[in-house]
């Protein structure tokens, strides 16, 4: 049962549709008013803070891609992973957050999606594609770094780059395949945290598919990142031979990777918890509040509170798409080399 009003046609679209109305029970509306301070905080985060994160994140990721594409540093596996991450993070910021903010604040923009099945389907796929890809690229980067530290002389450079490219291509194909399921399985925007009216379609319910989706998007990446970092720390600290082979720059990169992975874990863990609770509540527990009026009010109040907690968590998750620039700043060497290359190019042009 849904306690929130549904949009019947595009003329009813409103960016503020998640508001209490006469259809809500009195106790639920009173509970909603009690939550107003938290509601206002979440809305401010979603509008102002997220907008700042979008601008900052896109700028930093574009700069990272440009720097890492410089001929002097673009031939390493780390550089390839980071460039792929920059592209994926930009896509996530644009399609998951910027598009959602535009839809929530402009009825005309949202109507373009609601009245156009192609745009709605494309939005459903891209919202999932880039976020899923970014998450698993962090997993791949973590384990690739672990292999590089554990076996510093074990792979030829060219074969390492080839395996990196192959990994990224395979990951992109798998991510796209999983994202395409959103065309048949609903849930991606039916209760948007940005408060825009969803597309007018009745997709199939999540059912057991939600178990697999949550596992692939949150818990499995968290497990792989956590154990990958633990093994990396153990490998670096306990193996004196490997430590002697690593350069100071390599240690800085390792520390930066640990910092970025830790941020990712901190931000992704609450999302996994929230999605798991939602899955248990809506799929496993299977409540039927309409059978009892008092139970209905309790169910509706819990849904209101849960919605706001979900929005708060998702507003923080956007931070994970901005921290990859730390790799470029890990010791300044990349930027110094990039600047040197740019200045040399300018000297040649001026000489001509």
UniProtKB/TrEMBL annotation:
InterPro entries tied to this protein: GPCR_Rhodpsn, GPCR_Rhodpsn_7TM
PROSITE patterns per the UniProt record, alphabetical: G_PROTEIN_RECEP_F1_2 (PS50262)
G-protein coupled receptors family 1 profile domain residues: 60-328
Gene Ontology CC terms: plasma membrane
Subcellular location: Membrane
Designated name of the protein: G-protein coupled receptors family 1 profile domain-containing protein
The keyword Membrane appears for this protein: yes
Sorted UniProt keywords: G-protein coupled receptor, Membrane, Receptor, Transducer, Transmembrane, Transmembrane helix
Pfam families: 7tm_1
Family: Belongs to the G-protein coupled receptor 1 family.
Subcellular location, principal: membrane
A molecular function GO annotation: G protein-coupled receptor activity
Membrane topology field: Multi-pass membrane protein
């Amino acid at each position: 049962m849904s306690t929130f009003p549904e949009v019947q046609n595009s003329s009813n679209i409103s960016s503020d549709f998640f508001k209490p109305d006469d259809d809500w029970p009195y106790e639920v509306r009173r509970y909603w008013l009690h939550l107003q301070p938290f509601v206002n905080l979440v809305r401010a985060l979603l509008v102002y803070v997220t907008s700042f994160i979008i601008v900052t994140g896109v700028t930093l990721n574009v700069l990272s891609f440009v720097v890492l594409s410089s001929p002097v540093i673009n031939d390493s596996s780390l550089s390839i992973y980071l460039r792929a991450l920059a592209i994926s993070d930009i896509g996530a910021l644009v399609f998951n957050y910027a598009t959602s903010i535009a839809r929530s604040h402009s009825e005309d923009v949202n109507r373009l999606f609601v009245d156009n099945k192609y745009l709605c389907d494309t939005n459903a796929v891209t919202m999932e594609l880039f976020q899923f890809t970014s998450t698993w690229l962090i997993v791949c980067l973590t384990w690739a770094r672990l292999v590089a530290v554990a076996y510093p002389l074990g792979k030829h450079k060219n074969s390492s780059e080839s395996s990196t490219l192959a990994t990224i291509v395979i990951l992109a194909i798998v991510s796209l395949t999983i994202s395409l399921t959103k065309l048949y399985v609903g849930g991606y925007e039916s209760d948007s945290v940005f408060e825009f009216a969803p597309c007018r379609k009745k997709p199939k319910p999540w059912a057991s598919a939600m178990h697999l989706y949550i596992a692939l998007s949150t818990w499995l990446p968290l497990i792989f990142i956590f154990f990958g970092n633990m093994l990396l720390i153990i490998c670096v600290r306990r193996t004196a031979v490997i430590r002697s082979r690593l350069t100071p720059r390599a240690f800085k990169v390792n520390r930066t990777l640990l910092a970025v992975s830790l941020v990712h874990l901190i931000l992704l863990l609450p999302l996994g918890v929230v999605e798991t609770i939602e899955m248990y509540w809506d799929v496993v527990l299977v409540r039927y509040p309409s059978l009892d009026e008092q139970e209905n009010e309790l169910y509706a109040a819990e849904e209101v509170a849960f919605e706001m907690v979900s929005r708060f968590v998702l507003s923080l998750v956007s931070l994970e798409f901005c921290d990859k620039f730390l790799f470029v700043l890990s010791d300044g060497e990349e930027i110094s080399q990039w600047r040197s290359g740019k200045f040399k190019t300018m000297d040649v042009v001026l000489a001509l």
